[in-house]
Amino acid sequence: MTGGDWCHLIGVAAALGARVQFIGGEPTLHPDFARILAHTVELGVPVEVFTNLYRIRESWWELLARPGVSLATSWYSDQADDHARITGRAGSYERTRANVAKAVGLGIPVRAAIVGVLDGQRVREAEADLRSLGVTRVRVGHVQDLGRAQIGSRPDPAQLCGRCGDRRLAVSPTGDVTPCVMSGWMVAGNVLVEPLTVIVGGAAWRDHLVQIPRQGRVCPPECNPASDGNDCPPAQQVDGE
Q1: Where is the 4Fe4S-binding SPASM domain (predicted)?
Q2: Whole-number pLDDT of residue 49
Q3: Is pLDDT of 78 > 70?
């Protein structure tokens, strides 16, 4: 998806009265990230940027501080070595922490998800570290494999929270439309081929939705899709780094 493709799609979302979330992978790596975000802000669409906060250009801060923009990030430890071990990047703890502190200082709403990956991981200490920076919206979760098909098997829709496709959807970097970021194997169409409104009104979309249990699934406390804007917990995907 080019910058123009995303801007057009966000225009469609604006006409529908939607709010959007930029997620990945890492959304700030898109070459037109600033252009897409500026277009979203100009349209008055509320937007959350889910980013690892590793590489934030100085020129972006003014845009990120605009009304209607918020940030979300994944967090792993209060120890730099453990944080780097999980993200695979030396210095990721220091850079992400510094950018969290800067965002809070600029008054940008920030939420964080602490993802449990390692045995003995300092999850509670990591939470205290974040709160010491002024982050008040912190959720603790654990890594899961939803959205990433296992070799020789197919993900189980029963593991989804049950809210996928319920006034929400996800569009991948290639334009594929799925019920949410956690149901990446349920492709209903592609916005580069046909309009979004046609896709969500089509048979493939309906077929996917009937596979997702809507009742009887009680999410564990760390999932809690009813919090943080009723969105699924993308922070539970470690490869968001």
Answers
A1: 161-223
A2: 97
A3: yes
Using the predicted structure, report yes or no on whether residue 237 has a pLDDT greater than 50: no
- The answer on pLDDT for 204 being more than 80 is yes
**Look-up: residue for tokens 């997702």?**
212
| Cα end-to-end distance, the chain, whole Å | 20
As a dihedral over the C-alpha atoms of residue 175, residue 191, residue 29, residue 78, rounded to 10 degrees, the angle is: -70
What ranges in the chain are assigned the alpha helix state H?
3-15, 33-42, 61-64, 80-87, 92-105, 123-132, 196-200, 203-210
Six-digit token pair at 105?
A: 């200082």
Cα 161 to chain centroid distance, Å, stands at 15
Closest CA relative to residue 241, chosen from 97, 75, 21? 75
Which of 91, 175, 182 lies closest to 141, judged by CA? Answer: 182
Distance of CA 31 to the CA centre of its chain: 18
